[in-house]
Specification:
The chain has 431 residues and is mostly helical. It has helices at residues 2-77, 89-130, 146-163, 176-185, 191-204, 208-212, 216-223, 229-246, 255-258, 266-276, 286-294, 303-311, 319-332, 360-364, 383-387.
Length: 431
């Protein structure tokens, strides 16, 4: 019984425990209610604060509304496809490495640019080391101005003046009459051949009156070595008659009078005026024409136009000596067929460098007259020519050790016209 009562008491305790537990939640539920009652005044205060904040929000909305046109204007002012100011930093960060890259590469480029001329200079220096005597001329530009042409032409003349300070007419003469006759005879032959022929002619016919009255057949026989002897005989007899009849046996000193004489053109007239009367003139012979065209002083082909073009490049006072310098150079170095480019003193100024032999040793063998050790073109050259190493031309038919003279073997006898010039003789080229 006692045991049964103990079990019943335990069961009743178990029943009471849940009731306490059930009561506990009720107390917990009551706590929030009390908190809610206590927080009610706080909520009211919050409502009042929010109510007071509402005008501020409205003011902010108005401010944002007023700033909207400014934003819209900013959007309009920002071009399409371009970053806004807010996006500018981003491209700057991306572009930073690109900016650094050229900065690093710039020294290398500058170094390569500096190295390029050095390489070019070394490339140019290489041939100079291999052949120090070989000339590398600087050709003039294609579109050379007139001023540049004048400077180059005058520099060439100065250089030739230093090479040929003794330049002179290479025809032997003692007076204007002998000079005009010798110049007429020099057509289509060398001055050497004329100088070998005129002693016999002037020995027999010393004055215009004598030659005007001469027998044409006898004159032809004397002039036979010069070639075209019949036409030349007619010319010298005709001009002698004109001097006798029209000018009192004296050679006139005016261009317009000289060109009226038979066989006398502007070339012959300027030779006479410049060398017998001291009046400036340009002698446009075959050498002069060839060289001024090689040097690109002019592209004219007619003697009168060449004379005018070249005369405009130089003072009138230099015309006579200019002619001597050019003709001397054409006979000695700048030949028609084989120019000695490798031995030319004005090669750096010549646009035609390379047309002839450029090897210095081979070019040296092409030189003529005093430059090559051969006799000159005058039997009685001036002392300045002899001082420069020139050799007087031998008389007609005579021989010299360095270069056998063409013509007949008998001294003083005229050589036949068909006689061929000896090898190495200056008579190989027309003077």
């Amino acid at each position: 019984m006692a045991a049964a009562s103990r079990k019943a008491a335990a069961a009743s305790k178990k029943v009471v425990a849940p009731t306490k537990e059930a009561a506990a939640p009720s107390k917990k539920a009551a706590a929030p209610k009390r908190a809610a009652k206590k927080s009610a005044p706080a909520k009211a205060v919050a409502r009042k604060a929010s109510a007071s904040a509402t005008p501020a929000k409205a003011t902010a909305k108005k401010t944002s509304a007023s700033s909207a046109p400014a934003k819209a204007a900013a959007r309009k002012s920002t071009p399409a496809g371009k970053p806004t100011p807010a996006n500018k930093p981003a491209p700057a960060k991306k572009a930073a490495p690109a900016a650094v890259t050229p900065a690093k590469a710039t020294p290398a480029k500058a170094a390569s640019a500096k190295a390029a001329p050095a390489k070019a200079a070394s490339a140019q220096a290489t041939p100079a080391k291999a052949a120090p005597t070989k000339i590398t001329p600087a050709k003039p530009p294609r579109n050379e101005s007139h001023t540049a042409l004048v400077r180059r032409a005058r520099r060439i003349n100065r250089e030739l003046g230093e090479v040929y300070p003794y330049a002179h007419p290479e025809l032997d003469f003692e007076n204007p009459f002998q000079l005009v006759v010798a110049t007429v005879l020099s057509a289509q032959t060398t001055d050497l051949r004329v100088n070998q022929t005129t002693p016999a002619l002037f020995g027999k016919y010393p004055t215009p009156e004598d030659l005007a009255a001469a027998n044409p057949e006898e004159v032809e026989e004397i002039l036979r070595p010069t070639g075209f002897f019949r036409a030349k005989t007619k010319s010298v007899i005709g001009l002698s008659k004109a001097l006798r009849d029209d000018f009192g046996g004296e050679v006139p000193g005016r261009l317009e009078d000289l060109v009226k004489l038979p066989g006398v053109g502007r070339k012959t007239a300027f030779v006479v005026l410049g060398n017998a009367f001291g009046r400036p003139g340009i002698t446009v012979d075959t050498h002069f024409q060839r060289l001024v065209r090689r040097w690109q002083w002019t592209d004219q082909t007619e003697p009168d136009k060449i004379e005018a073009a070249v005369g405009g490049l130089f003072p009138k006072s230099e015309w006579t000596m200019l002619s001597h310098h050019v003709i001397f150079h054409g006979r000695r170095i700048c030949h028609a067929r084989k120019p000695a480019c490798g031995a030319c003193p004005i090669a750096p100024l010549c646009p035609a460098y390379g047309e002839g032999e450029t090897d210095p040793e081979k070019a040296q063998k092409l030189l003529k007259y005093e430059k090559g050790g051969f006799p000159g073109q005058r039997l009685n050259p001036p002392q300045s020519y002899l001082d420069a190493g020139g050799i007087p031309a031998p008389p007609l038919g005579a021989t010299v050790p360095s270069a056998p003279a063409p013509g007949a073997s008998a001294p003083g006898a005229p050589a036949p016209a068909s006689a061929a010039p000896a090898p190495g003789s200056p008579a190989r080229e027309a003077g």
